[in-house]
Each structure stands twice: as C-alpha cells, then as structure tokens.
Amino acid sequence: MGPHPAVAAIRLAVRRVLHDVLTDVAAQRELDSPHAPHADAHASPTSRPTLPAHEPLPSPLVLVACSGGADSMALASALAFEAPKLGIRAGAVTVDHGLQAGSDLRAAEVVARMTALGLDPVESLAVSVGRGGGPEAAARDARYAALDAVADRHGAAAVLLGHTRDDQAETVLLGLARGSGIRSLSGMAAVSGRRGRYRRPFLHIDRQTARKACMVQSLPVWDDPHNADPAYTRSRLRHEGLPALEKALGKGVVEALARTAQLSRDDADALDAWAAQAETSVRDANGRLECAKLYALPPAVRRRIVRRAAIDAGAPAGALFARHIEEVDRLITGWRGQGAINLPGKVVAQRQGGRLVIRQG
Fold this sequence. Notes:
Blueprint (H helix, E strand, L loop, with lengths): L4 H28 L28 E5 L4 H13 L6 E8 L6 H14 L5 E5 L8 H20 L3 E3 L4 H14 L3 H4 L5 E2 L5 E2 L7 H10 L16 H17 L3 H27 L9 E2 H5 L3 H14 L9 H12 L7 E3 L3 E6 L2 E6 L1
Parallel strand pairs: 1-2, 1-4, 2-3, 4-6
Antiparallel strand pairs: 5-6, 7-10, 8-9, 9-10
Helix pairs in contact: 1-2, 1-7, 2-7, 5-8, 5-9, 9-11, 11-12
C-alpha cells in the first residue's frame, strides 16, 4: 500500500523540483568546466578552482526554509524522503524573527525536528527586523537576507520554500489591491532569486493538503499566531477577504487566482523582454532617455523602461508603485512644463531638453 494521497502529492512536487535542480547544477558545472567550449584558453590554470579527475564532484546541497508550520514541515519531510534517492544532500534553516516571546525556544524546537528527519546541516538564524515598508515587508526582507547568507555559506544549490496555492491567491489579491500592474498579479514565481536559488514546489498544492500530509505522518506543527492576527493585512485577507469572495462567487476562487498568477506572469515576462530590447533604441548617444522615442512606444513597454531606470537610479523596487510610474510617464505623454517628480529612495525624475532624467536627488 502506497503513501496517503496527500503525502504522495507533496513528495511528487518535491521530486520534480529536485530533478530540475540536478539539471541546473549539471548545466552550471558544464559551463564552469575548464574544458567547456567558452573557457578562456589564455586563463591561468590556477585562476579556476578545479577538482582532480579522480575526485568525484560533491553532491549538491538543497536547503528547506522551515518555520515549523504545516506547509514547511510537509516540505521538509518530503525533502528528507526524496533527496537521498537522488543523491542530493538535504539540510534546513529556520529564521527566528524575534517578534514573539519565546521565539528562540521555538526555533530550537524546529532545529530538533529537522534533525530528527535526518536533515543536515540544520541551522537557526536570529535576525533583527527593521521597520521599512511595514512589519510584514520588513520581516520578509530580514528573512530572505538570512536565507541568502546561509545558502552562500554552505554553497547550497537551492532553497525550498513552502508557499502554497492559497498563499499565491492571497498574493495576487494583495497585488490587485495595490494597483501595481500585471507584475503584481503574477504573484510568486516557482523559481526566483539569484541563479534560481529559491524554489516553490507547492504553488499548485493547497494548504489543506500540506496540513493533511503532516497529520497522517504525525508531524508536529506550529501555528503562528500572526497568521490569525487581524493587525496584519494578509491575515485579514486570509480569514475575511477570501472567505467572503468564495461566499459571493462560489468555490474555485483560489484556483482561479492561481491560474491568473501564471497567465499574468507569462504576459509580464513577454513585456519585460520587449522593454529590454526597446530600451537601447530610446537612448541617445550619451545614454539619456529621449522622450519623443519613449512616447512612440506602447504604454506597457514605455512604463517598464521608466521603472527600470528609476530602480537603476536607486529607487527601491518594493516601494515603487504604479502611481509613481504614472506620474513620471506624464512627463513624457502630458508635458506641460511640470516640475520634478520625487520617487522613493530620494530619486528625482524630471524632463530636461526633451530628455527624461532620473537620478538621485
């Protein structure tokens, strides 16, 4: 008799991602090989770290980010089960945000649970959460900085995150509420981060499946009280907003929002590629953006170029909203002699001599 359907579903999702990781690792090693076609024939033999031919390459390491909640516990158990069969080393990391009393003890419990699953290495990282962008954004920034640090230190090929289809639906609705455009509606990517470091195997699996998998495996889980705290926007959306939508529109809202995320991501990726190709054609010989050439582009392409220029000038991507880009866009499409536009990160955009100048103020 095979495993419970919930357990089988999460293991299959993790197995697929691990196969992708192995493929990516093999491709990267081929590129890094001194015998690769692109290798510099004039490079010093000591300029590239190589292993003797008789020594096998080390097995790739995959980490799981685990809070102790049902989603990440289900993910950790599936990783511990699947990784050894594929010759992958599996470890775990838990981040202590220090936002609740006893958080250090809870982090220690998670470490003990991960170790009991056979994961190695296992680490707990304490972080200091700032205030920029609100408590949820600040905690997220601190968490990813910690995960990047531990992944770099161990040379991890990937870090698995336990975001589910329900999380994806919430992210799409939050993006819709902010009015930040199609990129916000695309939700979370299955693969993100530098060199595709972050992987989300559960974006097509609902939260209840992960919880069920923990229950049938007798895995202890911790329910973060912040997830039920109405002070947090995502919590209100989870416990009030989505249930109200399902009551008004019927079941299937979560699945529809997740599909919307994928369709939006495909469209956004295509528009981003178009904008990247078009950008060189709207700059003058000195690299300055020409307003007349920008005006001739479709709005979706033009605004992407403007947004990228603002980020390159120092505007934080997470604080740069659609309304900011619209204001700058009016310097191109509705020029009436208006003054400079102040953007996040002390960045200023203004029109000068038919050029759009975006720089630190």
